[in-house]
């Protein structure tokens, strides 16, 4: 049985937001406590991390299992790559593989140059960098992973379709029709919705649900919510059948 574990389901600020006293940030419901967005997909004997934000260490200490084989990065914004240095336990005895667009890989080299120096000091995390984009699908022991071009305002980022069963999309505000066609009738769709009001670079709840209506997945899990979305318990009642808000620690089998 395959599964996805949601390590974090919040946006760049997380929830609670520092200094905020809104109802969501003060909520006692554990589902309203959201670390930065990340997940582990366990499929075909592989443990695949999607994004590695600044909460990565905390997330892995509480995860169902800490085993990882690789990481897929969607883009290089800090809330999605800020935990890269904390991957060091996975870098020995072999270097840990990272898959991302070339511009993201270049950005990592600039952010943590000590990881890529010719003469690294002992203990530094070391990585194998692999390009993943529309022209470079990933093939791993019979498992196919396709990078999906997604628009995050004017930035082209990666969503991922893993096998024929699951797709993970975060930080999108626009998805082209050719990508919609690739997602149609997928088993599990993970997709972002920041809040109900319009945002320049993220989908709203309504625009997210519009994509869901076009794709018609069997199950949909919404991620990357801000505190402006509202309380998990209350807003969940507004969602259509087959759609739910993911929450930190949720494990879904497929």
Question: Gist?
Answer:
With 254 residues, the chain is of the alpha/beta class. The chain has helices at 56-62, 78-81, 102-111, 177-183, 205-215, 232-235; strands spanning 3-8, 38-43, 46-50, 70-72, 96-100, 127-131, 138-140, 143-152, 155-162, 166-168, 188-192, 219-223, 243-245, 251-253. Strand 8 and strand 9 form a beta hairpin.
Protein described:
The chain is α/β, with parallel strands linked by helices and 254 residues long. Helices cover 17% and strands 28% of the residues. It has helices at 56-62, 78-81, 102-111, 177-183, 205-215, 232-235, and strands at residues 3-8, 38-43, 46-50, 70-72, 96-100, 127-131, 138-140, 143-152, 155-162, 166-168, 188-192, 219-223, 243-245, 251-253. It has a seven-stranded mixed β-sheet with strand order 6-5-4-3-2-1-14. It is globular, with a radius of gyration of 17 Å.
Write a concise keyword list for the protein shown above:
254 residues; alpha/beta; 7-stranded mixed beta sheet; 6 helices; 28% strand; globular
Rg computed from alpha carbons, rounded to a whole number of angstroms: 17 Å
Please state the overall shape, judged from the principal axes of the Cα atoms: globular
Mean pLDDT, rounded to whole units?
A: 97
With helices defined by DSSP (H or I, 4 residues minimum), what is the helix count? 6
The largest pleated sheet is described as: 7 strands, mixed
Beta percentage is: 25-35%
What is the strand arrangement across the widest sheet?
6-5-4-3-2-1-14
* First-last Cα distance: 6 Å
Low-confidence stretches: none
Structural class: alpha/beta
Number of strands: 14
Q: What share of the residues lie within helices?
A: 10-25%
Order of helices and strands: EEEHEHEHEEEEEHEHEHEE
């Amino acid at each position: 049985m395959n599964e996805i574990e949601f390590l974090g389901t919040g946006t760049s600020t997380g929830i609670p937001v520092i200094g905020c006293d809104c109802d969501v940030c003060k909520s006692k419901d554990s589902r309203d406590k959201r670390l930065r967005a990340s997940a582990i997909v366990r499929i075909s004997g592989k443990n695949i991390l999607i994004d590695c934000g600044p909460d990565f260490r905390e997330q892995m200490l509480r995860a169902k299992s800490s085993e990882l084989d690789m990481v897929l990065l969607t883009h290089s914004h800090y809330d999605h790559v800020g935990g890269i240095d904390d991957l060091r336990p996975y870098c020995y005895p072999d270097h840990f593989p990272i898959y991302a667009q070339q511009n993201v890989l270049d950005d990592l080299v600039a952010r943590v140059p000590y990881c890529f120096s010719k003469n690294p000091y002992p203990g530094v995390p070391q990585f194998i960098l692999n390009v993943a984009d529309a022209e470079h699908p990933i093939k791993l022991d019979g498992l196919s992973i396709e990078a999906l071009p997604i628009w995050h305002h004017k930035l082209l980022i990666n969503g991922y379709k893993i096998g024929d069963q699951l797709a993970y999309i975060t930080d999108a505000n626009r998805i082209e029709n050719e990508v919609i066609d690739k997602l149609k009738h997928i088993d599990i769709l993970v997709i972002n919705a920041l809040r109900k009001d319009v945002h320049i670079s993220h989908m709203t709840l309504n625009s997210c649900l519009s994509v869901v209506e076009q794709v018609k997945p069997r199950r949909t899990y919404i991620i990357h919510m801000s505190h402006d979305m509202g309380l998990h318990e209350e807003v969940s009642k507004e969602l259509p059948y087959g759609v739910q808000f993911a929450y930190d620690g949720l494990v879904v089998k497929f």
